[in-house]
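Action item from last week, closing it out:
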Amino acid sequence: MTHPTHHTPDHPADLRETTTGAVVPRPPRATPSPWPRRFRPRGLLVPAPVLLMAVVTVIDVLTPDWLHIAPVLAAVPVLAAVLLSRRATAMLAGTVLVITVLLQWEAGSLGHPDAVVTLASLFVVGLTSLAACTLRQRRERQLRQVRSVAETAQRALMHPLPRRIGSLALSGVYLPAESEARIGGDFYEALRTPYGTRILIGDVRGKGLPAVGATSTLLSAFRELAYREPSLTRAAEQLDARARRHIAALDGAPDPESSAGPEPGALFTERFATALLVEFPPGEAVARIVHCGHPEPYVVRGSEVCLCAPEQPGAPLGLGDLLDTPLAAQDVPFRPGDRLVLYTDGFIEGRDRRGRFHDLAARVRAHAGRPLEAMVAALRRDLLHHVDGDLGDDAALVALERLA
């Protein structure tokens, strides 16, 4: 969840590493999982059904005739249904029946009523396991299809960051809180316009698929306004107007830009998006920033990391009509070698098991001496390590460096 407040220093799309070079977008590729690679218990347990069957069979042969543990073999097809394919499950269920018949024949109990009940039970368990395995595989296919659609939507909605735009090197990371969704309410964009390079990073209130509509609206608007509006503050104001129209459409209220205005006594809406617009004017060694209720960026100069607090903070997008003060741009010196780290609140509000916030400022300071792409990769790892892979909110980060 995003908050329309400014954060203190106390308070990581796929990793897109960037290098210097011409303005060439990163080619589309399969989206890697944002989670750290760990051992996969399911992969390690694949041999478990066969091992269980072998162990139970050996024990049953070695135990006295009055002790029979063959009924434990019923667990074999059940375990196979969870771990293996339908064909393997059917084969193991049939093998269990054959082994049980042989064990009963060896013990001289084949054909006895209790032996018949055991065989019937194993047959029913085998059929049930086969049905469960079929259902599991069907759900897994559906999940793969959903993931494919989400990855396609992510590539269409959030374009890969360019490796370089003019004298700026870029690198970014996007981590959705809902790992299966692969897309959420955080967003960023970088464009080369007639007015210089323009960057947008933002966070729609909420997460997951419900926030995708607002994200799409804001990104589409920014891609149009960035080329059309000479003034960055004017572009931000138009983004706010677009956000309020989107909110009005969702809430079924009149268009806030219409002459009728909102109905008297209309309920206050909690729909909004924080955002940060950054412009690098050609020929000027500055970064021009417009704050719209978004966490303040960090400026990195050598080993020094400074929080870039706004001189005049603005309201989040969609809530601009609540403040009489117009949006204002702030110029920050940005010379060759300087870096600017933009991020969403997922990078500073992630908590560990003890409830401690992730200290992004300290991590930026620790990795400031690394190359830009290595720094972003390290910040991503640090966040996932801090939250133990369990993000409570979407997280996005964009780092920029002025090249000589």
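Closing note: Residues 113-157 form the longest helix (45 residues).
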